[in-house]
Amino acid sequence: MRIVFMGTPEFAVPSLELLIREGYDVAAVVTQPDRPKGRKRTLTPPPVKEVALKHGLPVLQPERIRRPEAVEAIAAYKPDLIVTAAYGQILPVAVLELPRLGCINVHGSLLPKYRGGAPIQRAIMNGERVTGVTIMYMAEGLDTGDMISRVEVPIADDDTSGTLFAKLSVAGAELLGRTLPSIADGTAVAVPQNDAEATYAPNLTRDDERIDWSRSAREIYNQVRGLSPFAGAFTLWNGEPFKVWACAVSDDSADTAAAPGEVVRVTGEGIAVQTGNGVLLLTQIQPAGKRAMPAAEWLKGARLAVGTVFGGGEL
Predict the structure, then answer these.
(1) 280 is in an annotated binding site
(2) Does 112 appear as a known binding residue?
(3) How far apart (Å, rounded) are the C-alpha atoms in residues 230 and 204?
(4) Which superfamily is assigned to 206-299 in CATH?
(5) pLDDT reported for residue 254
(6) What gap in Å lies between CA 22 and CA 93, rounded to an integer?
(7) Which of the listed residues 92, 152, 208, 310 has the most CB atoms within 10 Å of its CB?
C-alpha cells in the first residue's frame, strides 16, 4: 500500500509516526504551509512537516488543495490510500477519487456526533463525559462518510482541550494501526452514519470565546476548559480583554444580591465571580498586555475591588 498522509497539527503526529514505525510505504506527506507564530511572527513549519522531514519523506504544502496543480502533485505519487488526520482543508472530489482504496480520516469524535472542525473543543464545552475517535471513509459531505472503526475515550472533569487532544491523538493512532490491515485486504466493513443523530462542531469564533456570566458556573467552567490552552476564554475588565485560562466551580454559596459577572470575593486562591447559577473561582488569568499568571499573583498588585463587574461593554 502506497500511502499519502495528510495532516497538520500535533494531533496528526502520532498517526504519521505509526505509519512510519509499522513500515508502511509513506510516499509523501501533505500539510499546511508554514505560518508566522509568536510575537516575532517567525515562519514556523507545522508539526507534521517536522516529523516528515526528520524521516526523509517528501513534503507538499499547497496553499489550496483544490487547485489543479496541487491535485496533480498528489496524483504523481500514485497512492493506493490517502490517510488524513486534522489536515485543515476539505478535499475536493478530484483528490478523493485518486487512490484505489479510497481516502480515510482519523476524526476526533464518535460520529455522527460532532462533525466539523472543532469536535474536541466543543465536546468539552458542551459538558460531554465521553468522546472518542472514528476512522471513516471520506466523502463529499462534511464528515459524512461511512464509518470503519471507532474507540471511546472518557473525558475527565479536569481535561482541557490540550490534554484531550493528546489522549485522542494517541487513541487515533492506535486505532489506525488496528484498522489498516482490514483496509489493505478488503475486509473492512463500512457502516453508514445515521444522519438523524448527527450534531455539528463548527470552527470556533470570537463569540465562542467570550464569557457570558449569565450562564451557570459549570457551563463557564466547561467553556474555559474547552478553550484552553489555545484561544482561551475571555471577559472584559476596564474595557479590555481579560483572559481566563483556568477556574473552578466554587463550593461557596452564591450571593443572591450580586449580579452575574460581579466579583463577590477576592481570596488567596483567586477571584470569586457570581454567575447566573453559582460562583466561579478564577485561578489562572491574563490581563491585556500581560503574561498568563496565577490570579493570586496578579491580585498582589492589581486594584480589583469586591463589587467590580466583569464583562460590560463592547470590544
Answers:
(1) no
(2) yes
(3) 11
(4) Formyl transferase, C-terminal domain (3.10.25.10)
(5) 60
(6) 29
(7) 310
Question: Mind listing the pLDDT tens digit for each residue in 106-126?
Answer: 999 999 999 999 999 999 999
Which grid coordinates are listed for 123?
A: 465536546
Residue span(s) of the chain under CATH 3.40.50.170 come to: 2-197
C-alpha cell at 298: 496578579
What is the model's pLDDT at position 169?
Answer: 98
pLDDT digits (tens, 9 = 90+) for 156-212: 999 999 999 999 999 999 999 999 999 999 999 999 999 999 999 999 999 999 999
What CATH number matches the domain at 2-197, 3.40.50.170, 3.50.50.60, 1.10.10.10, 3.90.1150.200? 3.40.50.170
Domain with CATH 3.10.25.10 in the chain: 206-299
If we measure between CA atoms, which residue out of 242, 245, 294, 299 comes closest to residue 267? 299
* Tens digits of residue pLDDT in 237-296: 999 999 999 999 998 766 668 999 999 999 889 999 999 999 999 999 999 999 999 999
**How far from 278 is each of 40, 214, 264, CA to CA, in Å?**
41, 10, 11
Q: Is 101 annotated as contributing to ligand binding?
A: no
Question: pTM, whole model, 2 decimals?
Answer: 0.93
- Tell me which residue of 139, 131, 106, 114 sits closest to 11, measured CA to CA: 106
Count of CB atoms within 10 A of residue 57's CB?
Answer: 18
d(C-alpha 57, C-alpha 11), whole Å: 19
Would you say 109 is a known binding-site residue?
Answer: yes
Question: How many Å separate Cα 183 from the centre of its chain?
Answer: 27
What DSSP designation does 12 have? G
Quickly tell me which residue has 482490514 as its cell: 182
For residue 112, cis peptide bond before it (omega within 30 degrees of 0) = yes
